[in-house]
Structure formats: structure tokens, C-alpha cells
Amino acid sequence: MGGEFGLAGHGIDGVGHGGERTVTQSGNSGFPAAGELTIGFAHAAYQMAATFAARKTGIRHFEVRDLDSLRERMPEIDVLVISGLWRNELLERAAKLRWIQSI
To answer: What digits encode the pLDDT tens for the residues 47-63?
Structure first.
């Protein structure tokens, strides 16, 4: 892995090839500051949180593997990275949600 990551074009960017990554926010992107951002990973099998944690971004994140857990944690999520668990009803609990990335 390594290389670029982030939410380019939305004020949150970072570049690195191992070790500590830098995460910054600029402008009025509609996203919270990096230190206040929460990413939710949602998939029944993919272990995305461990991979993301290895990048050492300092961004708060968590992973769920079932729909009930996702429903419960939706109010915390600013960025949702999801595959297979999406239901339109989740939007009712997504007050902070700013971005959905389907994988």
C-alpha cells in the first residue's frame, strides 16, 4: 500500500509511504476537522479498519460487520465506507454523514 489517500477535493488529504501520515483540512469543505472526523467501515467480511489503522492517520474510525451494528453506530459517522450492508433507511440515523464510499 502507501501512496495517496484521503478525501481529495474535500479538504482532507494526506500522502505517505509508510510511517506517520499527515492529515490536514483546509477551506470550508463541509467536513469536520480531521481530529473530529469519524469514518465507519461496514462490510461482513472485509477487514478495512485494520488496514486503515496501519496508515496511522490519527483519524477516528471503527468497523461493523452487520446491519444492526451499523444502524446503531450511524449517528457517529461522517464518512461511510460500505459494501453489501447499505439500506436507504440508514439515512434516517445519519445526521453527521457527509460522504458514502461504496466498495
So the answer is: 999 999 999 999 999 99
DSSP structure class, residue 90: G
Read off the CATH number of the domain in which 76 is found: 3.40.50.720
16 in any annotated domain: no
Sheet of 3-7, strand order: 3-7, 12-16, 24-25
Cα→Cα distances 4→29, 46, 70, 92, Å: 19, 21, 27, 32
Please check whether residue 42 lies inside any domain of the structure: yes
Phi, psi of 78 (to 5 degrees): -95, -40
Please give the residue range of the domain that contains residue 94.
Answer: 32-102
Specify the number of domains making up the chain. 1
Give the model confidence (pLDDT) of 84-97 as tens digits: 999 999 999 999 99
pTM (predicted TM-score): 0.72
